[in-house]
Amino acid sequence: MQKIAFMRSALVFCLSLFIVSGILELNKSHAQEIGYKLAKLWDTPAGLNVPESILYDESRNILFVSNIFGNSTEKNNKGFISKVSLDGKIVVLKWATGLNAPKGSAIYRNTFYVSDIDHLVKIDLETGKILARYPVAESKFLNDVAADSSGNIYVTDMSSENSVIYKLNQGKMRVWMKGSEISSPNGLSIEKGSLIVGNSGDGSLKAINLVTKKISTLAKVGSGIDGLRPDGKGNFFISDWHGKTSLVRASGKVDLLLDTTVSKINSADLEYIASKNLLLIPTFFDNKVSAYRAEER
After folding, report:
1. 141 SS3 class
2. From CA 9, how far away is CA 97, in angstroms rounded?
3. Please, what is the average pLDDT of the chain?
């Protein structure tokens, strides 16, 4: 009797797994059907100088744009952060200054973090004043930044010589992830307990569990991944610096949405505001931010 009862329990358990698996696959297949087309809305006016990254601050309803001002590895103290409205107006051109080729950024509570070649810089969100600089001795090319719900800050070093993801915790910068699966990591985003990474070395979109550090490949994109943002429906908008903007579906399929490579307009570290269906693309050497409405189709 015990053996029969055990077999029944095992059968019920397996059946439950099968049903759950089916539901997950159904949800996944639903997400696969989502596609987008882009409708141009606006470009920012003159003033930005090599804009590399853009970040939306929901609480203030404002955009922060990182301006390199010069070469991507040049320590000229001329880099700055701009504040831009959601209709493309430059509200404050030089909100935070004294930076060296600032790139990716993240916000945690009342603090703005931005990468700065071989430093992570902490800035007061109210004043634009630099509060701290965290040096990363071995880094060569710090790029994107992400913050988790506990206030840990993650930063990629996309240089092929280093290829590391660092973590700022309690004021200390430490190596968080390094290895053959992390090759020239660039874009970052936190999504459902995982750090989503644009792994430019092998052209893959990957997810790293924040607790176990288990790595899984979400899609093979086949090119460099600069910026990445979730659409809130299981898909990701990604950019290739050379000028391509794409959607990675939950199935791993990649849809090309925009290609400005022929006109030599870059597609740098983008932002997507799901509540407004608004996709924002910094154009780097073209010195503007371009906005598009992402229309579901």
Report:
1. coil
2. 65
3. 90
Contact 142, 115 (CB under 8 A): yes
User: What would the two tokens of residue 153 be?
Assistant: 């800050």
Q: Where are the domains of the chain?
A: 1-32, 36-296
| pTM of this structure | 0.89
The conformation of residue 275, written as its DSSP 8-state character, comes to: G
In angstroms, what is the C-alpha Rg of the chain?
20
Angstrom distance (rounded) from CA 115 to CA 21 = 40
Residue whose structure tokens are 């759950």: 20
Q: Virtual CA dihedral for 176, 191, 101, 114, nearest 10 degrees?
A: -80
For residue 148, give Cα distances in angstroms to 44, 153, 189, 198, 238. 30, 7, 9, 17, 20
**What's the residue count for the chain?**
297
| pLDDT attached to residue 223 | 83
pLDDT tens figures, 245-288: 999 999 999 999 999 999 999 999 999 999 999 999 999 999 99
- DSSP for 63-78 reads EEEEE--S-TT---S-
Assess if CATH 3.20.20.70 describes domain 36-296.
Answer: no
Chain centroid offset of residue 123 CA: 19
In the 8-state DSSP scheme, what is residue 242? T
Q: What is the pLDDT of residues 74-117, one digit of tens each?
A: 999 999 999 999 999 999 999 999 999 999 999 999 999 999 99
